[in-house]
Amino acid sequence: xxxxxxxxxxxxxxxxxxxxxxxxxxxxxxxxxxxxxxxxxxxxxxxxxxxxxxxxxxxxxxxxxxxxxxxxxxxxxxxxxxxxxxxxxxxxxxxxxxxxxxxxxxxxxxxxxxxxxxxxxxxxxxxxxxxxxxxxxxxxxxxxxxxxxxxxxxxxxxxxxxxxxxxxxxxxxxxxxxxxxxxxxxxxxxxxx
Length: 193
Known about the structure:
With about 190 residues, this protein is an alpha+beta fold. It is built from 5 helices and 7 strands; from the N terminus they run αββαβββββααα.
């Protein structure tokens, strides 16, 4: 599962090729001091790396824990549009957000395209189609359980980070020809395992 660090600081990221990125994570059974410290370390790491989301497998710990910190507007194509889903309205003011054991369901049939990148796959970005809306159930770091319908950049970020918990990378969602075209770049990225 990986060792939880003993103090608050920036964590070491796992890059493409690391085995933790392909392993399915397990649920967090109890919100301990170690889990709280790990979550704060993950937020610090995410901010230091310029990301808007980070999942525990990306720091080598295969537990169902993600942190996200997205802008006040959750509309990726038009930041001037107001946030409209219940998840956006209720969760954006709480950023950065720590989500424990997040579960996504009821994905919309409508999909949207957006250019995604990943802190564990630096320098590579590509358009990815994902459902526009989905339901989220999760536990916050204070133990409160939440359940919301989410849309916009919030929904996309949640799907991207949740995929990490399942051992899925955004590259897996690309067409086979697109994946093949990235082979050369990906071979250069296999930093650690």
